[in-house]
């Protein structure tokens, strides 16, 4: 057995020590909830009758109370391609549950917001707080006390983190996350990127751009680039919360249905009435959270999880910060190149060996905690398997011994780069995240004058007017959670990429987010403290020289300290109205910092 890498061991101990009191309080909570919380035997007859009134043929089994009743929390809608396949899942799950004497009911639905639809639009200002809304919706569904276990149906950006946060407050229940898989590959990602940049330059029109986008996003399933949604699936795998190999099987296949069926059957085996009780609150411990960070770094995953993982961890009484990410990044090699960090998409990644190879090779290299409680198997290595159909039977095969495509996936001993590509930068502007995995090494340090904006549309206008044709650090402030809900600024990627391709030294500094598909332009994002409330980004003026270096871990305004201290903070623009943004004002006002998870709900709960 390979010893754990010393830095991973040290960071894990750091997290355990920091979380000792909060984790103990959490474990005490879920123990009390199991013993004395709301569950079926405690419900009055009127309560129970309401709960099974419409259950049809399952009513006698629910009344008898001798078998698990599974709560289904679903993020189904048929506007969002990733979640459209979930429409038929509840009926299938009920059949699969009956096969083993159990029952299932839809406990509740959650929103499933698509950042791809709202990107660059006003609705994106609801995006981050949709995560807290999803968590609250999950809690509402599970609050009825009708269930001894739950299946969580969700995939995309804020949806899995929201489901996890809500589910962990019912941590005494066993739960399994059930993905639906990515759509088949469409237009090559590099070609999509090329068309986007041509459109930004005015060299192709909207019709050509829409044709390209439609060829990329063309059917049911998750988008195939390695953004936040597919990073979610990776994390659930390395935390052992999926059935082995579940993440990247395409929708609508017999194999996908067989793995979902296996999840239902497995859930009934890990309930509290048996001898293999595996509550989600015990599965998600400090080691599992460190595994999620390691997996994120090793595969070049989404920067959005520098916000989501601290929030998920808090819901389980665990405290992580960006120094943990930074220290792990320095130790964990990058072993995957999936678009936007490479040419192939998640289907190509899966064909090259996928998550089973990632898990097996990282365990062998001492990079992952193998000794975690998973939903299936006695250790994480049991998840390093791929589901296959042998006739009508589902079988699990061990991971391939070596990558089947070393342009996509490599062994940790021969990585694409020696570090995980997500670094902490800090200085007199605060603390921010810098994703290096898609940024050329020679571009990871830049020192140039600032051009300051308070709205991403103003950046686009300046680009079109030719005002950014120079070495420049584009500063976009008042984009944090308290300002406008911390929207992603993904639509800035094409114009900034164009400027970089023209030979200019370009960087972005913002208290907002970039997409999980953030790419080749150096960017210090999630800058905290944010501009609203006195963050130093509010003091930057046009022409100030900014130094940003991922290699040095530096983000500084090179301004005389006396002048810097004398400056007044810029005044933020008024909050927007319309598109429902005003309904989320209380979330903006109560949000805490990005490094803590940018959550109103967790802050208000004192977690």
UniProtKB/TrEMBL annotation:
Keyword Transport attached: no
EC class: lyase
One GO process term, biological-process aspect: D-gluconate metabolic process
Pathway: Carbohydrate metabolism; Entner-Doudoroff pathway
Domain of life where this protein originates: Bacteria
Molecular function terms from GO: 4 iron, 4 sulfur cluster binding; metal ion binding; phosphogluconate dehydratase activity
Residue span(s) of domain Dihydroxy-acid/6-phosphogluconate dehydratase N-terminal: 69-382
Record's catalysed reaction(s): 6-phospho-D-gluconate = 2-dehydro-3-deoxy-6-phospho-D-gluconate + H2O
Cofactor: how bound: Binds 1 [4Fe-4S] cluster.
InterPro entries: 6-phosphgluc_deHydtase, Dihydro-acid_dehy_C, DiOHA_6PGluconate_deHydtase_CS, ILV_EDD_C, ILV_EDD_N, IlvD/EDD_N
Pfam families: ILV_EDD_C (PF24877), ILVD_EDD_N (PF00920)
Enzyme Commission code: 4.2.1.12
Name of this protein: Phosphogluconate dehydratase
């Amino acid at each position: 057995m390979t010893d754990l890498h010393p830095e991973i061991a040290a960071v894990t101990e750091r997290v355990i020590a920091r979380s000792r009191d909060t984790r103990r309080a959490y474990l005490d909570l879920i123990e009390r909830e199991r013993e004395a919380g709301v569950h079926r035997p405690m419900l009055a007859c009127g309560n129970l009758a309401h709960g099974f009134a419409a259950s049809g043929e399952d009513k006698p089994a629910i009344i008898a109370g001798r078998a698990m009743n599974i709560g289904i929390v679903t993020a189904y809608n048929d506007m969002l391609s990733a979640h459209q396949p979930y429409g038929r899942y509840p009926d299938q799950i009920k059949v699969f549950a009956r096969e083993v004497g159990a029952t299932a009911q839809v406990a509740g639905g959650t929103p499933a917001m698509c950042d791809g639809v709202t990107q660059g639009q006003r609705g994106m200002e609801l995006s981050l707080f949709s995560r807290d809304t999803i968590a609250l919706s999950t809690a509402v569904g599970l609050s009825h006390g009708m269930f001894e276990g739950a299946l969580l149906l969700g995939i995309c950006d804020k949806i899995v983190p929201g489901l996890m946060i809500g589910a962990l407050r019912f941590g005494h229940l066993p739960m399994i996350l059930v993905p639906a898989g990515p759509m088949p590959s469409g237009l090559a990602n590099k070609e999509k990127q090329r068309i986007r940049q041509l459109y930004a330059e005015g060299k192709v029109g909207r019709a050509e751009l829409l044709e390209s986008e439609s060829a990329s996003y063309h059917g049911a399933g998750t988008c195939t680039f390695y953004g936040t949604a597919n990073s979610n699936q990776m994390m659930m795998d390395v935390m052992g919360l999926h059935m082995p190999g579940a993440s990247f099987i395409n929708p609508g296949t017999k194999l996908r249905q067989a793995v979902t069926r296996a999840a239902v059957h497995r859930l009934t085996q890990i309930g509290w009435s048996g001898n293999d009780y595996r509550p989600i609150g015990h599965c998600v411990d400090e080691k599992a959270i460190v595994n999620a960070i390691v997996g994120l770094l090793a595969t070049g995953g989404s920067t959005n999880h520098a916000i989501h993982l601290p929030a998920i961890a808090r819901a389980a009484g665990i405290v992580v910060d960006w120094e943990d990410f930074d220290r792990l990044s320095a130790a964990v090699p990058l072993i995957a190149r999936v678009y936007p960090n490479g040419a192939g998409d998640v289907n190509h990644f899966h064909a090259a060996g996928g998550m089973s190879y990632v898990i097996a090779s990282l365990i062998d290299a001492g990079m992952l905690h193998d000794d975690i409680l998973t939903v299936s198997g006695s250790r994480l290595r049991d998840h390093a398997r791929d589901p296959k159909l042998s006739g009508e039977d589902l079988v699990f095969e061990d991971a391939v011994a070596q990558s089947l495509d070393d342009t996509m996936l490599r062994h940790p001993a021969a990585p694409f780069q020696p570090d995980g590509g997500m670094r902490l930068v800090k200085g007199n502007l605060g603390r921010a995240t810098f994703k290096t995995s898609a940024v050329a090494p020679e571009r990871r340090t830049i020192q140039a004058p600032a051009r300051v904006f308070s709205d991403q549309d103003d950046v686009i206008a300046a680009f079109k007017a030719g005002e950014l044709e120079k070495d420049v650090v584009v500063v976009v402030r008042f984009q944090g959670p308290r300002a406008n809900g911390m929207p992603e600024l993904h639509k800035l990627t094409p114009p900034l990429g164009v400027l970089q391709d023209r030979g200019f030294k370009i960087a972005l500094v913002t208290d907002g987010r970039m997409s999980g598909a953030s790419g080749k332009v150096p960017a210090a994002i999630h800058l905290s403290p944010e501009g609203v409330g006195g963050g130093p980004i509010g003091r930057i003026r046009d022409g100030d020289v900014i130094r940003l270096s991922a290699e040095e871990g530096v983000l500084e305004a090179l301004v005389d300290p006396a002048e810097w201290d004398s400056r007044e903070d810029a005044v933020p623009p008024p909050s927007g109205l319309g598109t429902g943004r005003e309904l989320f004002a209380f979330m903006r006002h109560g949000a805490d910092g990005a490094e803590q998870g940018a959550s109103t709900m967790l802050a208000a709960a004192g977690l």
